[in-house]
Amino acid sequence: xxxxxxxxxxxAVALAPAFAAAVLIxxxxxxxxxxxxxxxxxxxxATTSMTADFVQTDRNGQRVxxxxxxxxxxxxxxxxxxxxxxLIVGDGSRLTMIDxxxxxxxSWPVKNSPLGALLDPERDLTKYAKxxxxxxxxxxxxxxxxxxxxxxxxxxMVFIRDGSSPGGVRLRGWVALDSQNNRxxxxxxxxxxxxxxxxxxxxxxxxxxxxxx
Length: 213
Prior knowledge:
Blueprint: H1 4-13, H2 19-24, H3 36-46, E1 49-58, E2 63-71, E3 75-80, E4 86-91, E5 94-99, E6 104-109, H4 116-119, E7 129-132, E8 139-144, E9 154-161, E10 169-177, E11 183-193
Antiparallel strand pairs: 1-2, 1-11, 2-3, 3-4, 4-5, 5-6, 7-8, 8-9, 9-10, 10-11
């Protein structure tokens, strides 16, 4: 299947930060105010759920799209377009990648993923995050990584100032970088914050054949 190898790697990376670099390239750097990180933390704490359309781009420029559903703490679902037989679901404690084409399932703790910074509203970003300069006073770029756990990867979240969104900023996307320097970019659109999301949205069907006893 087209994109098969690339998509499997992208999903396993669990999605990384590159929007800022792509959009702001060539623009003069603008230092962000000291309260920028506080605005981001307020946004994350105030956002209990979110739905959005997403476009996922790998380092080779290959793109796929889908629907993102998020519910804090720990729950997320990446529903890919119909011709992509992959699904990524976070159930509150673990992220699971399901490949329906080859009937394989991989799982790892949410906290071990770059997405942990996005899904845990209680995480103190001041211990792991730094605000990066951007080319616009309306764009905030926040890099999060645990220096003691480089294997968890890095996520750079990008926010746009928006008075109608929680905390006065709107999550625009992120770039995730794993320990092997595989980079994945997620761009969001049509974001809806704090909408009703049922827990059933984070269930999935196991494609693996049942073992006979």
